[in-house]
Amino acid sequence: MRFRSPRLLPRLLSVLATLSIAAGPLPALAQDAGKAPVPVADPAMRSPSATRAMLLGAARAGDRIVAVGDHGVVLLSDDGGKRFRQATGVPTHVLLTAVSFADARNGWAVGHRGTVLHTVDGGENWTLQRQDLSVDQPLFSVLFRDARHGVAVGLWSLMLQTDDGGKTWRKTVLPSPPGTTRADRNLFHVFAAPDGALLVAGEQGTVLRSADNGQNWTWLDTGYRGSLWAGTAQQDGTLYVAGMRGSVYRSKDQGAHWEKVPSGTASSLTDLVALGDGVAGVGLEGASIHVQRGTLKAGNRPDRLDLTAAVAAPDGTLITFSSRGPVPRQ
Fold first, then answer.
1. Is the pLDDT of residue 38 over 60?
2. Which long-range contacts (CB under 8 A, 24 or more apart) does 27-33 make?
């Protein structure tokens, strides 16, 4: 099987950015044009070209690195990101968008059709916990604070929560953003702060925050009006969110106030990772940024390869992923 992912990433992100998805269900992005729809329940195919698939999410499972993406591809690395191999068993080949691990063995991945997958062996084999075939309302991000408590977010303010490791998921009814009558903003990335607060970066420059383990949520306004695709928190509690056109915003008071951080790039940023006393980010057109102790380093790869996700290896090295698979470690 040949993965044709490079042409899909710009389409996916541009669709999210322009909100044309609000007009109807998302198309099946993992399908080839002109072919009949692929049954969602079909397992991901094992292929030598899997390491060249578009990857949209990555996480650490202990010392293992796990990345997920197009056609239900799950890649694993046990040597700090130097080499990747395909996972043994994945029960679906819908587009997977994000992955989160509570520990070295228990992990969850989410994607299109509201799909939630679960692994108990560090990502080698996965089982299907949830899927909604009635509407293609994709999940864009997932976070598990421990092996029981998790949050997944997605299209049209879709938020799911579980208290039993994903055996059951409940939809969370969110309050309407200020000045609106309903919560219908797309939610792109869920992350946690050191104080235990949960945060979600979304569209129209808004961030959701919960200080009570997801029971109640408050909308925060960063002052930005574009979509925020990524977020992270440093150990000192400083929050960062980033998204379209290189926009980066920072808060040092739990999200009450935000300041714009010059990013040095106009390329949209797709992921942020806290690294020690700094924050690193990657984005479209090969963009990368590194903010450390008030110093900013930014640049773009000469080949302009779209960078889609990043994770810190056990030795602290930033491992990046792209529209053509893992980026070779330097």
1. no
2. 28/94, 28/112, 28/136, 29/70, 29/95, 29/112, 30/70, 30/71, 30/72, 30/93, 30/94, 30/95, 30/112, 32/4
